[in-house]
């Protein structure tokens, strides 16, 4: 496949049998191989990729050691058929460990087909290390995905015995290619990155925190068209997300770097998967900063953009604060115009490097309005409280529990009973004290409690359902995180709950005291919308803004 990309192919077809163990065929519509070079192509250390590009440091193609085809021929039966554009017919040859056989003529459109049969048939020791055909097939698709996301303008199809198993059409926009691999939800929840790094540029489409993954493998990195693995760059991207993601969750997306080839050493790894940058630290740090900026700029997470379509209600018209009236929010009524009351202690805030907050009021028992040093904050009361409870739960491993005066009887479905049997320990750690009660019911003797708030006994049903069917689609998928997120959701202040000023202050204080500003709840919904002063000034057409 690398050879096909090096040959300028626009379209590549991969066909595999038994996960590639029996047969792999790669056809491309690239520049082909002149017939007189066919035998050379399968000879060790023969490469056509040095001459036009000068010294080896400057090479930007994927291959340049002339080893791949020769190495494959020693490990399997290789058949190569190729037709360069200026030829009427294709020529081919077969090769194995004994070397190339005689050339033959074949019919073929412009381009090259390489077929590999019976991988490691003559080296059983190595064949033993192949995984099952199903697992090898997964690896094939992964490899194709990595190459596609490094070359999204090339279309790639993958077929197996049963027909097409994956298709990646050429895409002009990186985000569209990324969505082909990572799922269409990326398009509506992404962060675009376009920035400079030392010695080059980076472009990318990353998922918002709602689209995190349990491993770092859903972050696709490439440099100069070469898919790479880079711990330091992946760590830099993870660091940029900071506490936007719960612990043990990783960002998803695609980042393509272009850097001057002479600042890149691709010979660190035999498969050239790892590379070394001349200024790796500086690149990683720049990447972290760029991604962080892009994340902070993303409208739905931390900052309102007046014109962003699909952004939450945060434009100037909707952000207008009107005093909430009526019995729904009695506690807040009296705080309007009394800004000092729920002030987050400056000492705490300053110690963590966060500016102090002044609570201004509340809208519809949903949103709190606060003044920060640099503008206005709108806070979702449920999301904020949920995040704080979640964090406490993750830190301590358990919430408090509140014993019920009257144990509550809760009816469970068969699936919920099964989930209780499977996850009893997690349910108990979360704060529920549950015992069997007849064939269908359980008795709840204690419920999770946090700072005086308790979850309703019925929350047990929701927790068990979520544990039974693997959680909500956007939920973190580790069992502990999932449980914590569900419990936090139920133990938290709800939307519409009247909240006393003191409690708002406590939530804000806890929020600001988290190790890093946490602007997303465990489900990835935004907690805080920030309206910087400068933006307000622009809205009000203040001169100099
Ligand atoms: P390398 O890619 O390092 O040069 P390979 O063994 O992979 O070494 O390929 C040897 C040579 O065969 C390449 O340099 C190239 O000239 C030719 N070649 C192989 N595959 C293709 C292809 N699909 N299209 C055009 N040329 C190819
Ligand atoms: Mg090659």
Detail the topology: elements first, then pairings.
Blueprint: H1 2-6, E1 11-17, E2 23-28, H2 38-41, H3 68-75, E3 77-83, E4 90-96, E5 99-100, E6 104-106, E7 111-117, H4 124-127, H5 133-150, E8 155-160, E9 163-168, H6 174-182, H7 185-188, E10 190-197, E11 200-207, E12 219-223, E13 226-228, H8 231-241, E14 253-259, E15 264-265, E16 276-277, H9 280-297, H10 330-333, H11 346-351, E17 357-363, E18 367-372, E19 375-380, H12 381-396, E20 400-411, H13 414-429, E21 433-437, E22 441-450, E23 453-454, H14 459-468, H15 479-491, H16 501-512, E24 528-532, H17 533-539
Helix pairs in contact: 8-9, 12-15, 12-16, 13-14, 14-15
The structure holds adenosine-5'-diphosphate (ADP) and magnesium ion (MG).
Residues 3-4, 7, 28, 30-33, 41, 47-49, 63-70, 112 line the site of adenosine-5'-diphosphate.
């Amino acid at each position: 496949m690398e050879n096909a990309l090096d040959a300028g192919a626009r379209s590549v077809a991969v066909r595999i049998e038994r996960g590639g163990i029996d047969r792999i065929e790669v056809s491309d519509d690239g520049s082909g191989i002149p017939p007189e070079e066919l035998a050379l192509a399968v000879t060790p250390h023969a490469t056509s990729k040095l001459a036009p590009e000068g010294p080896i440091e400057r090479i930007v193609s994927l291959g340049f050691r002339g080893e791949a085809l020769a190495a494959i021929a020693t490990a399997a039966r290789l058949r190569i058929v190729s037709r360069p554009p200026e030829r009427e017919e294709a020529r081919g040859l077969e090769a194995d460990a004994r070397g190339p056989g005689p050339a033959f003529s074949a019919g073929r459109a412009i381009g090259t087909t390489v077929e590999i049969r019976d991988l490691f048939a003559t080296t059983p020791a190595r064949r033993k290390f192949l995984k099952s055909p199903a697992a090898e097939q997964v690896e094939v698709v992964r490899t194709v995905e990595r190459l596609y996301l490094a070359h999204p303008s090339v279309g790639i199809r993958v077929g197996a015995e049963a027909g097409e198993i994956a298709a990646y059409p050429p895409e002009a926009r990186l985000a569209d290619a990324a969505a082909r691999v990572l799922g269409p939800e990326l398009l509506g929840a992404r962060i675009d990155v376009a920035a400079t790094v030392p010695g080059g540029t980076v472009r990318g489409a990353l998922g918002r925190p709602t689209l995190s993954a349990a491993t770092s493998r859903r972050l696709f990195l490439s440099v100069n068209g070469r898919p790479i693995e880079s711990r330091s760059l992946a760590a830099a991207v993870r660091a940029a997300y900071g506490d936007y993601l719960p612990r043990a969750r990783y960002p998803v997306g695609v980042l393509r770097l272009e850097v001057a080839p002479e600042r890149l050493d691709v010979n660190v790894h035999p498969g050239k998967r790892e590379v070394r940058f001349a200024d790796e630290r500086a690149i990683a740090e720049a990447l972290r900063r760029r991604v962080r900026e892009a994340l902070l700029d993303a409208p739905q997470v931390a900052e309102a953009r007046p014109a962003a379509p699909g952004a939450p209600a945060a434009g100037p018209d909707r952000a207008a604060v009107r005093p909430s009236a009526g019995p729904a929010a009695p506690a807040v009524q009296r705080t309007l115009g009394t800004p000092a009351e729920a002030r987050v202690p400056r000492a705490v805030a300053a110690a963590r490097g966060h500016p102090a907050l002044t609570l201004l009021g509340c809208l519809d028992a949903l949103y709190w309005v606060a003044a920060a040093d640099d503008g206005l904050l709108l806070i979702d009361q449920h999301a904020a409280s949920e995040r704080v409870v979640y964090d406490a739960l993750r830190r301590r491993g358990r919430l408090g529990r509140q014993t019920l005066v009257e144990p509550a009887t809760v009816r469970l479905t068969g699936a919920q009973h099964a989930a209780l049997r499977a996850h009893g320990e997690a349910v108990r750690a979360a704060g529920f004290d549950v015992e069997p009660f007849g064939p269908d019911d359980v008795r709840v003797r204690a419920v999770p409690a946090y700072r005086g708030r308790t979850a309703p006994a019925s929350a047990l049903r929701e927790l068990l359902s979520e544990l039974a069917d693997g959680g909500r689609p956007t939920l973190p998928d580790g069992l502990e995180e999932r449980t914590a997120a569900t419990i936090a959701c139920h133990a938290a202040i709800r939307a519409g709950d009247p909240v006393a000023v003191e409690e708002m202050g406590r939530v804000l204080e806890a929020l600001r005291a988290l190790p890093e500003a946490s602007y997303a709840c465990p489900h990835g919904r935004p907690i805080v919308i920030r309206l910087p002063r400068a933006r307000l000034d622009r809205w009000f057409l203040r001169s100099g803004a």
